Hints:
The structure holds 3 protein chains of 3 kinds. Chain A is mainly alpha-helical. Chain A folds into 2 domains: about 290 residues, no CATH class; about 40 residues. Chain A has 13 helices and 4 strands. Chain B is mostly helical. The N terminus of chain B is likely disordered. A two-stranded antiparallel ribbon of chain B has the order 1-2. In chain B, strand 1 and strand 2 form a beta hairpin. In chain B, about 75% of the residues lie in helices and about 0% in strands. By secondary structure, chain C is mainly alpha-helical. Among the domains of chain C are: about 80 residues, Four Helix Bundle (Hemerythrin (Met), subunit A); about 45 residues, no CATH class. Chain C is built from 6 helices and no strands. The C terminus of chain C is likely disordered. The chains are: A mainly alpha, B mainly alpha, C mainly alpha.
Amino acid sequence: MLSLDLLPHSLTLATVLIILLKVVVIFVLGLVGTMLMVWFERKVISGMQNRIGPNKAGPWGLLQTLADGVKLFFKEDLIPDKSDRFVFKMAPFLAFVPAFLVWSVIPLGGDFSGGRDGSFSMFGHRTWMQLADPPIGILLVLALSSIAVYGVMLAGWSSGSKYPLLGSVRASAQMISYEAALGLSLAAVILVSGTLSTHGIVLGQSSVSRWSVIATGLLPFIVFMIAATAELNRPPFDLVEAESELVSGFNTEYSSIRFALFYLAEFMNTITMSGIIVTLFFGGPQPVRFDIGSLHVDPNLHLGVLSGTVWFLLKLLVFLYIYVWLRATLPRLRYDQLMNLGWKLLIPVALWWFIVLAALRIGDERTPRWNKGVVLAIGAAVFIAGATLLVVANGVARRNREREGAMF
Amino acid sequence: MISALVASDFATPHVDYHALAPEIVLGVGICLLIVLDLFLAESRKWLVSTVAGLILLGAVLPVVTLGVIGSDVRSMFDGRYVIDNFSLVLKALFLLSGYVVVLMSSRDTEERTPYQGEYYTLLLTSIMGMVMMASARDLVSVFVALEFLSIPAYMLAAWRKRDSKSNEAGMKYFLLGVFASAVMLYGMSLLYGVTGSTRLVDIGQAVTGTDHLVGVQVLGIVFVIVGFAFKVSAVPFHTWAPDVYQGAPTPITAFLSVASKAAGFVALSLLVFLAFPAAKSVYEPFLWVLAAVTITVGNLLALKQKNIVRMLAYSSVSQGGFILMPLAVAGTGDARTSLRAVVVYLIIYAATNLGAFAVVMAVSRKTHSGEIASYGGLFNYAPGLAAVMTLFLASLAGIPPFGGWYAKFGAFKAVLEARTGAAYTLAVIAAVNTVVSAAYYITLMREMWMKPAPDGDESPVRVPRNLVAALVITGVATLAFGVLPGFSGYGAITGLAGAFGR
Amino acid sequence: MDILVFVCAAAMILCGALGVVTLRHPVHAALSLVLTLFGVAVLFVAQNAHFLAVAQVIVYAGAIVVLFLFVIMLLGVDRVEDLHAEPFKVQRPLAIVSGVALAGLLIAAVVASQHTNVAARGAGLPGVNPVRNDLHDGNIVALSKDLFSGHVLAFELTSVLLVIAVVATVLLARRSRGIDAAPTDGQAT
């Protein structure tokens, strides 16, 4: 059937081949995509800053990343004296591997036009353009992103030097703080789609009005976008590697191929995170189909299996561009601003909106349906009460701190 | 138990709000306290203790109405949460002893700590865990209740942050407490593994101590009991108790030695009577040894103490042994008598011990010392306090007509009804120890009545009003239980729903 | 296949657990703990309990051990401990003996119970219905149903407990000048 089973009785040559093929394709695409992403970022930023950017290696400088990679590969590999050698060597892989693994659950294509479910036939098996579709799907992404913390954290600690340590302490605090907001906005999507499987989430978003970004009321998307940027340690949340304060943050002591792994992981994470945003909120490889009232738009690219991939890439590019754009324009936050934003704004708002969504959902299932306006009004009242309490609490806390001379 | 699993068959669980009212009042009260603390100016913080006391009394109200209206058993969530007479009596006990602790604290915390709101919030949470424990009939609820009552208590033990003794108390209590939780959780997982259910009654049917799973069953039972033995500070798991009792603020010491211990015994009784009734060959010898060792070691160590709080700590260890006694014969003897003995002992011990600690607090306001020697001449300058303390000490020693004798009488009766050699031996050990224990109680009495004040300072003790109230409540209770044993309606306590059914 | 997965995961768990105890360096010990947690997660997956596996990774490996490391790094206790000071000489051999004895006891208990053939006892353990695997996420559905029907009270009250734990932690961590520096003697100590 559709889900490939690794139990011995179904382990035929064809299934092994399909899986191997998917793994290889994803691996290669991931690496090439990252290479292009680095080029894309440098090119776009230079455009925004009225520079030319890389233009020597290859046509339009496309091979610049490859050249950089070769250079890094042949550089001397330095390991600081005071470092913890085993952990120092392990850290780059801990950062790099999760970045790759996230690809395994993202639906990358398939023909969804005209209400098809995106499956296609290969060696006599129906399968999807997706390496795996475990029942816990999207939670795997959260799990991997929490593993990725280790890479950054251990890299900074094992360097045996002050700046990297500060960087890694910042990183772990930041990633843990924003994971909560990330998870809460994710919960809103899961509430609406009713499944954790990424393929299921994509299937549910068959037209623009059913895209999660609209179905969940935009707020979870905004929170997710901000939290994701913070998870990625990208500007304006790149305090981890704030060059004006920490030299280069957690990777200061790294050189050669180990540094390259961190560098790659960072850009690959940007791509995967954009992929996740597209999957969760914008229908993944689904075509942009309108189905509102009398307006029916059902674009069909007539590319068969690849049409989904094209849609996915188009949507992906938008978010990649946004990330680069953010980097080029926004100044870096201060550390306390970062923490305040995460704990005192994003988490409460995400939680509140999740509860409102749940209330609306319950109201729809009751036999005399609840009036949506009333539910929203009560939600607004709860929000005002909660916000007032939060403001008062903050005020009291500040007063107490000043009076007691407390350190925090 | 995992029921059938199709998406459509989810039924909203039935919630009996009247039965849950004590928990709801407490839960709402806790949130209310946190918010109230936010809006109160520093000069009006005393309101917090008043409100905390009112919340506790408010939670007693539904317990009373539940007891009066409809005496039948209310069971919720597939029998995982049960309100019966047993749980109602104990809920009332927890709430009222909590109220006495609030009375004892209000003056104490006003003078010493800026964090009053948090203090009472933590206290109420701990009490809520105990209230929950009385109704829990499921391993998960039992464990959640246990953590509920322990986690705030760890913090409360370390309340005086600048005092290294208090820090030591909090640290020791925390480390040993979580270790005990871990051991117990391992035991629970084994029990769940061999029975496939977390409900105590299901476990009671499956754990027979006879079939081929007996090895794992025994380990599960022993580990769970060991976990709670830590909580009730039974020897050899008692090592934390004296240090914690000495380091924690006195009201918290009273709270830990009474309410927290009672909650541990409630859980032990639930397990013995509901989860392991068929495995008496496993738990009885184990509890027998625990009881005998606890009574003896607690007493011998109490004899040597110079500090009154440490003395009371070891005395409470030894009293715990007396409460274990009926449980050790619960299977061979009459289960009803045993349960009744445990509950009666818990109630009387709570009143007496809380009272004793209240006196300790009152006296230390003047003497600023915890040495037993500093009680010299108490009768001369504070005859009232000396008289009440004598009442409590006599009750602890088991001298009629004060409450303690009736409690001890019940425990002995339960043991003797078992009519086995082991039971008789245990009774003899306990009897010898009762005599030994009288020695240190009487030493303190002699100090108060006969000796002169050590520093010649005989100015009267100023006892704040709330301490007086606490002393009156506990004193009257101690006397009343002793003089009129029938008055508290003990007959009703035998109803532990689901037990004795076989 | 099943036995292979089990052996690998069990080896991971045991190595990690031994590492936690024997490694002298706190950070290495914490990392060994991560290995153990991953082993447990693998076992969960082998039992088709995907949700538990991922929760294990997110909560324990992703948050709790990270916080351990965070504290180790911030407090600067990331040094090898000197474990040669011994208040009681007999403590260590005694601990080894009792540890080995306990392990022996556990193994003996499990070995004694191995004749229990689940199939021979009918439908497995009493009270446990097997989770339906024909639903794609039957496991999660089963778990949430159990949580929100039978255990709903314990589940909801746990949230209160978490709030209180936060209150207690903030209080414990708070360091103020002046206020509680006042002498706190006079207690019955």
